[in-house]
């Protein structure tokens, strides 16, 4: 399953857009980070991409409103924080809520599964697989249901 996903998800906004992805929404709870993305030249040439200040542990999107969620650096930032176990569990529940049944979360991470996997798997509404890829871990979570 991971092999099938691995090459289908270019993990930056520009290359996703250029591969035909639309309805892309980026979030970060840092306003400067979001402003930098929104104002970047690559964003100007790719209309319709949304940039929102939002906490990944408390997403405000509607239930089941996304097919795919891609994490690049957020899990790792949270894993370095105090009380990371509480935040990681919250992030997992928040992501699962906004994924449609069958939807997937893809995360390229430096955080080893010994730390992250038990916390991600506390949420029973998805299945999470992990595989080593070069110096990274590739996590893929699939929300149960069709
Ligand atoms: C390593 S940076 C990655 C930034 C960006 N995703 C990228 O790929 O270039 C980690 C980011 O996670 C953000 N972050 C940390 N905790 C977060 C949370 N709970 N909700 C949203 N963003 C968070 C930080 O503000 C920081 O911008």
TrEMBL record:
Region forming the signal peptide: none
UniProt keywords, alphabetically: Methyltransferase, Transferase
An annotated Gene Ontology molecular function: S-adenosylmethionine-dependent methyltransferase activity
An individual GO BP term: methylation
Superkingdom field: Eukaryota
CDD domains: AdoMet_MTases
Coiled-coil regions listed: none
InterPro entries per record: Lys/N-term_MeTrsfase_sf, Methyltransf_11, SAM-dependent_MTases_sf
Domain Methyltransferase type, first and last residues per copy: 15-106
PANTHER family the UniProt entry points to: METHYLTRANSFERASE TYPE 11 DOMAIN-CONTAINING PROTEIN, SAM-DEPENDENT METHYLTRANSFERASE SUPERFAMILY PROTEIN
Similarity comment: family membership: Belongs to the methyltransferase superfamily.
Name the record gives this protein: Methyltransferase type 11 domain-containing protein
Native species: Ectocarpus siliculosus (Brown alga)
Lineage: Eukaryota, Sar, Stramenopiles, Ochrophyta, PX clade
């Amino acid at each position: 399953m991971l092999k099938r996903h691995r090459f289908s998800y270019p993990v930056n906004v520009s290359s996703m857009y250029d591969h035909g992805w639309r309805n892309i929404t980026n979030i970060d709870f840092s306003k400067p980070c979001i402003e930098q993305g929104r104002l970047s030249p690559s964003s100007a040439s790719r209309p319709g991409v949304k940039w929102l200040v939002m906490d990944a542990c408390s997403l405000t999107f509607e239930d089941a409103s996304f097919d795919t969620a891609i994490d690049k650096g957020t899990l790792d930032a949270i894993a370095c924080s105090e009380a990371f176990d509480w935040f990681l569990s919250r992030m997992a529940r928040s992501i699962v809520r906004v994924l449609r049944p069958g939807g997937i979360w893809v995360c390229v991470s430096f955080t080893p599964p010994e730390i992250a996997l038990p916390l991600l798997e506390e949420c029973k509404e998805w299945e999470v697989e992990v595989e080593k890829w070069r110096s990274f871990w590739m996590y893929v979570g699939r929300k149960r249901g069709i």
